[in-house]
Amino acid sequence: MADLIIDLKRANVKIPPQVMTELRSLKTLIEISRMEGSGSNVIRRIEECLSNLESYLTPVAQEKLGDKYIKEFMRRISEARRSEAKVKLEKRFLAGVPRDKHWIRVKLTEDTPLDLLKRICSDLKLDHKVQEGDFLLIYGDDEAQIKKFVKRMQEALAR
């Protein structure tokens, strides 16, 4: 979807802010599903976001980029939906977080507002820092607490 939006921008098509918000939500949900597994609510929401983006972008792309482009795009989407996600979680050093802490970064969007994330961090006794680029860094001693954070965030997004 991101590639399609880039190609549309190159063709001087103005992309509405709500489409960009939907794309960011989709990316966040995909990261949540990678971290926590494929919960039915997250999968449902991912499909909903994809459907919303496709229904807006496909006709615009067909008009501006042509039928051949759309056929190739739809083939790639279909292929991506059938393939199994291969995720490699890695532990790496992140500036500002002690080495013995577990952490996750979340992009702040309308779907993931700062006050909601701070409340979840407080409930789970996790530390957090707002970072450049509208990210919230959440960290703590226990990896299980980070997973609980992801699960609670997933539940909040499903509502």
Characterise the protein shown here:
- The protein is mainly α.
- It folds into two domains: 2-82, no CATH class; 102-158, Alpha-Beta Plaits.
- Helices cover 62% and strands 11% of the residues.
- It has helices spanning 2-10, 17-36, 40-65, 67-82, 114-124, 143-158; strands at residues 102-107, 127-131, 135-140.
- The chain has a three-stranded antiparallel sheet.
- A hairpin with a 3-residue loop joins β2 (127-131) and β3 (135-140).
- The longest helix has 26 residues, at 40-65.
Please outline the helices and strands.
Layout: H1 2-10, H2 17-36, H3 40-65, H4 67-82, E1 102-107, H5 114-124, E2 127-131, E3 135-140, H6 143-158
Helix pairs in contact: 1-3, 2-3, 2-6, 3-4, 5-6
Give a nutshell description of this structure:
With 159 residues, the chain is mostly helical.
The count of β-strands is 3
Distance between the termini: 24 Å
How does the helix and strand content classify structurally? Answer: mainly alpha
Q: How confident is the prediction overall: mean pLDDT?
A: 80
- Global outline: elongated
- How are the strands of the largest sheet arranged? 1-3-2
Sequence stretches where pLDDT stays below 50 over 5 or more residues: 84-91
> What count of structural domains?
2
Radius of gyration: 18 Å
Q: Helical element count?
A: 6
Can you summarize the main beta sheet? 3 strands, antiparallel
What string gives the helices and strands in order?
Answer: HHHHEHEEH
What proportion of the residues form beta strands (DSSP E)? 5-15%
Overall helicity: 55-70%
